[in-house]
Design brief:
333 residues; mainly alpha; Farnesyl Diphosphate Synthase; 15 helices; globular
């Protein structure tokens, strides 16, 4: 997966700028313990894919000059993303994130809840100060707030699906559009709005961001079962022990024969499943074609997303958007 020669330098420079802006955004507060907890995940840095998406879309539509006006929104999305991670870790009782102790493990659940809430609020302080026309500002505030609410709905669907064995592919896709894709959708949409994109461009890039996010989550489901554990930041096979109704598990129900089904059932939803049982379940998912089915769906997202980029004028930043799509569904960690 060869990147355009300008992609890596552009990505590195933008991540550095986002890192600095995130740190600057998390200086205010009178309670040192809470402020430290708020800063724990965001200052651990990371890939910054959501803000990078917003910044790249803005540059593709409005040129380099829109960067200063767009970056606060990009940072706001990164803070919202980290707020969801803090609360997700509490719900899932995960003890490690980004190689660090989870916020609720390092401090306590009450502090973690407060830290998540404060990150959420800080994001909207940044959005309220955006240097954009008043109608665009109101639109961004309203739609970003709706995004946060709908992410909560997606998370609730995900939790409820763990107790079901009849989740359909359509239900799964609806869930990941809310839980994961919405933030990429708003990154692309917000970047285009701030850059002054036309109605047609805003609509096309909104759809592009949604498709990007769906492909990202499907690839994440695949990596949860196939990635190199030395580079993947999550436990391999955790979706199996946790009975996650991914597109892979859903596809497998239709493809497994009875003997395969018994091997899979020994690990699926069994928090005490041994590594050997999890490995056997993953082998079944390979053998019945469920993993390849999911990866084919991710590849379709690439094709769909590329078709939507016709709304973007040619140039280096459009090339970066094209590469970003392939990166999301072909990444190895």
């Amino acid at each position: 997966m060869d990147a355009p020669p300008t992609f890596e330098p552009s990505y590195a420079a933008e991540v550095s700028a986002i890192d600095a802006a995130v740190e600057a955004a998390l200086q205010e507060g009178t309670n040192p313990r809470l402020l430290e907890a708020m800063r724990h995940y965001p200052l651990a840095k990371g890939k910054r894919l959501r803000p990078f998406t917003a910044m790249t879309v803005a540059r593709a539509i409005g040129g380099e000059g829109v960067a200063p006006r767009t970056r606060p929104y990009a940072v706001a999305l990164e803070l919202v993303h980290n707020f969801t991670l803090v609360h997700d870790d509490i719900m899932d009782q995960d003890l490690v994130r980004k190689g660090l102790p989870a916020v609720h493990a390092k401090w306590d659940e009450a502090t973690a809840i407060n830290a998540g809430d404060a990150l959420h609020a800080r994001a909207f302080e940044l959005i309220a100060d955006l240097q954009v026309a008043e109608p665009s500002l109101r639109l961004l505030v309203r739609e970003t707030a709706a995004m946060v609410r709908q992410i909560g709905e997606g998370q609730q669907f995900d939790v409820e699906f763990e107790r079901r064995r009849d989740v359909s592919e359509a239900e799964y896709l609806h869930m990941i559009e809310y839980k994961t894709a919405l933030m990429y959708k708003m990154a692309a949409r917000g970047g285009c709005i701030i850059a002054g994109g036309s109605t047609a461009q805003v609509e096309a890039l909104t759809a592009w961001g949604n498709t990007l996010g769906v492909g990202f989550q499907i690839r994440d489901d695949v990596l949860n079962l196939t990635a190199d554990p030395r580079t993947f930041q999550k436990e391999i096979g955790a979706d199996i022990r946790g009975a996650k109704q991914t597109i892979i598990a859903i596809a497998a129900r239709e493809r497994m024969d009875p003997s395969q089904g018994s091997s899979f059932a020994a690990a699926f939803g069994n928090s005490a499943a041994t590594p050997a049982q999890v490995r056997a379940a993953i082998d079944v998912l390979h053998q019945c074609g469920a993993i390849e089915y999911a990866q084919a769906k991710a590849r379709q997202c690439v094709a769909d997303a590329h078709s939507l980029l016709v709304a973007v004028p040619p140039g280096v930043h459009k090339d970066h958007l094209s590469h970003l799509v392939r990166l999301f569904v072909e990444r190895t960690h």
